[in-house]
Fold:
Amino acid sequence: MHLSVVSSLDSECREEASERVAVANPGSVVVHHDLLEGSVVLRRIRLGQSLLERSETILEHGCLSCTVRLDVVPTVERLAGLGYGHAVLGLPPGVSVEAALTDIRRALGSAVTIDNAVLAVDPAELEDHIWDKHTLYESGFTSMPEDDRTSGEFLVGELLRVDTVMAQPGIGSRLGPILGGGPAEASEAWGHGNALIRQLAPHATVSEAHDVFRPGCYNPTEARARTRRGTVRVPEEAATGPFHTVLHSVPRPLHPGRFTQALPELAAGSHWLRGRLWIASAASKRIAVQGVGPRVWLESTGDWQPQIDDRGTVIAVTGRQDDVDAGEIRSLLDSCQVSADEMSSGLGVLEDPLGLESSL
Structure:
């Protein structure tokens, strides 16, 4: 059985994107799952214009991962057993493609071939999502109080994983024409959002509402490579729109004290900060840095590989042209390097304000 998976934060964007994928794959069965209040899972299955099934299931422990494991996966397995050649799986809002595919592969293995991983998003709302400090639960995207991810964290993660981004009007954009604001696709916010998508996901095909969908382009090996912590990929061509990406690397380890002071400046105005760090106080550790909007975090990803001498700091910063200055970023990172004198004397390297030595 062939499978295309659609993720989103907006259930209507997801449903419209799912239908577009189904049109590109004639005879597809379309499945939508939603996790509602009270641990209720709503499942709907359609074939063309016919509703084949609508059912509700109450989970003992209602959460997104349980929804995938206990209802999404068994549904895919059942449809495969019924002989359907292709299914479009519209995931519950907030469920990542990676989480769903991990459980599907574990249960069905080679019996399922993944054709596409698709994110449905409103470009006009993307920038606001990235800077939103509220959690998915606080914003009403999921019904799980313990879901402390922000909408920006979810969307940037999905942009890394998917092969296709479907630009679909969200609730705010759909109100525009009704209120006399003109079509969403013609707005400045829509154009800026598309430019931002191309900076965040240069690998992905961006499909507008009337574009022809390109089926069968999911590459699991490439998706895993893109999502490895500390990996840095940037657009091949220089940006000419409102957003750009600054890439910089430094060869010597970073002084932990100076880097601690510099990190807020590096992150200021950055929509997406990512890279890997070589910190003097934890010199053997390969430390990933990630920042989405107002949130920035560090994570150890293991040791450097001495046989290929891959040590070093590489950072990319994506933001508005007016907010992210390439010269300032490069000067700031350069100033964080341990100097030749400090490296030879060991002075200034022992303090560890980030707590890396003990916590990583």
Observations:
- The first strand starts at residue 2 and ends at 8.
- The CA atoms of residues 149 and 204 lie 23 Å apart.
- The first helix runs from residue 11 to 24.
- DSSP finds twelve helices and 13 strands in the chain.
